[in-house]
Amino acid sequence: xxxxxxxxxxxxxxxxxxxxxxxxxxxxxxxxxxxxxxxxxxxxxxxxxxxxxxxxxxxxxxxxxxxxxxxxxxxxxxxxxxxxxxxxxxxxxxxxxxxxxxxxxxxxxxxxxxxxxxxxxxxxxxxxxxxxxxxxxxxxxxxxxxxxxxxxxxxxxxxxxxxxxxxxxxxxxxxxxxxxxxxxxxxxxxxxxxxxxxxxxxxxxxxxxxxxxxxxxxxxxxxxxxxxxxxxxxxxxxxxxxxxxxxxxxxxxxxxxxxxxxxxxxxxxxxxxxxxxxxxxxxxxxxxxxxxxxxxxxxxxxxxxxxxxxxxxxxxxxxxxxxxxxxxxxxxxxxxxxxxxxxxxxxxxxxxxxxx
Amino acid sequence: xxxxxxxxxxxxxxxxxxxxxxxxxxxxxxxxxxxxxxxxxxxxxxxxxxxxxxxxxxxxxxxxxxxxxxxxxxxxxxxxxxxxxxxxxxxxxxxxxxxxxxxxxxxxxxxxxxxxxxxxxxxxxxxxxxxxxxxxxxxxxxxxxxxxxxxxxxxxxxxxxxxxxxxxxxxxxxxxxxxxxxxxxxxxxxxxxxxxxxxxxxxxxxxxxxxxxxxxxxxxxxxxxxxxxxxxxxxxxxxxxxxxxxxxxxxxxxxxxxxxxxxxxxxxxxxxxxxxxxxxxxxxxxxxxxxxxxxxxxxxxxxxxxxxxxxxxxxxxxxxxxxxxxxxxxxxxxxxxxxxxxxxxxxxxxxxxxxx
DNA sequence: TCAGTTTTGAGGTACGCACCTCAAAAAATG
DNA sequence: CATTTTTTGAGGTGCGTACCTCAAAACTGA
Lengths: 356, 356
Prior knowledge:
With 356 residues, chain A is of the alpha/beta class. In chain A, 46% of the residues lie in helices and 17% in strands.
């Protein structure tokens, strides 16, 4: 086969596009990479040829040629709860593998529930060093502004875990928190003896959209289906185990007849400690969020009765895939990127992974 | 930078390995690709250099150079149940994307529960055309033999959905079916009024390992925790909706007091039809397997009360990744490939994807 | 030590693409 | 029309690897 053989039956290449469009390789290249100096008519002829052949750029080859390195950054709340820790582990764990795929990731921890701090970090970001950011943070005007600015500078932005729909973020990687709250209520309703009782809802902060949505969903289903259940107003634990452990005695002093707890936020360690100390753990039905070493153990031993979770490994991998697709201007496989609302009972917990 | 510059701070390449090992590029290449004509001492020097540098072959570049095309085949049971159909959809859907990644996949349907047919297809497989096979089929001696043969011919073999541990298959992509059965029992036990009643278990075939394991797990938990529940012997539906619909009336004639059904196999269509016709659907608690358009609708409307499921998209994508890793002799990310036992209640069903 | 064999090195081509330069061709301008 | 400006083509180099050839060097055995 000569230098420019026909390449029968295989994927079309830039050479095929050039031949079909009746232009030179250089011109196709200019069009594909948005370089100037091509007439509009010619540009269209090239795109027609691309259409006709069904040409798709070989990203692996392109990245090889370009020496491209993707640079992504995660911004996580500075909180010592297990969910965030698990995200960190996943990020570190995957970074070695990603190095082989020309993508560098790093993460930074930002004071939790502090929109100003987050906004200021965002505004200092340099498009030269960062191609995309994944943000796990509160939705406020300042953050929205910062995101919209960063988008203008050409970076891709992903909302992680908690959506930021008011901003121009490219995508949200996380679960449908309203549905998660509804699921929790469905479980709680079934698990409470006689379908009735007084339920405490623990939340993180009113600034956290994910927590608000969970509460909303929880209330919906309780109202729809479980008339006998009385839901107290939310206890704000700020995702902080220690704070939570301090607050709970007061709540139970006021409401000693609580029979159910929906722990919709992070900070399970504090809750578990409290339950153990007070021996309340087999008197109170607990539906909690996020499967971690701790919550897994609590489920195993009956302190927790069900766990709603989202796979942190999936969250991180999905974020990377979406960010990469965004900077490459490629489509996203929605069903692959949809994060499931996992329901764990004692029986279906996945085996514990060794942390790397 | 000259032709053989130092490449500081970046990933080491074959050139770096050659330099450090004090041999030529050609020799490194011979070692890496297992070509003959290199002394053992030299081979070791090369491996030492690889170790020292932490060199990892750039698979993208290697595949580009080699013009490699992965060729994988799925073998699915010839059954018109929705689960298998969903797998087919996923395979077809992903094949376009895979074409861009130099991998071709196809599937073939084999008479269900017919070990001879499966074994004969396997033995006819040509390593020239197929690099790897994913098998969803029964575990018998004939199949085991055929798999071991095929392995000897250099193909990679994955057990899909139902494990084939007696054979030399490289990997199993699917859920822990024992745990799935246990989960089903846990749900059933909680959902049955007063925690007691007579439960029918529907299975596919005694030849199907996954079904056997589910039954086993189900019995375990019922015995451990739900003394008031009486479980009947399995009804074999052969994953065939029509057959199942024909068999069920007889069972209910004999046991009119059935209050729970664990449908551990495929063929939900037949079950749903029967329940609707006989208006049993709100008298009987049903825990079924696999989220499909049909079972989703049944859950939505209360005919089913819970669904245990495995994500077919994940199954297919995972299979491909593992097969590719196998033929490339690369490690597998276990936590990414672990298929979750999904529990779906009405509230946490994922939105319906448009089939492609 | 010499011929024979094995091992090694040097070099090239290719994969599909990005990016560069220079000159030729075509179009726009006055 | 000639001149300037814009557009296009031809060609090369490199990304990291595979795979090939040929000759030089290093070992082997007798």
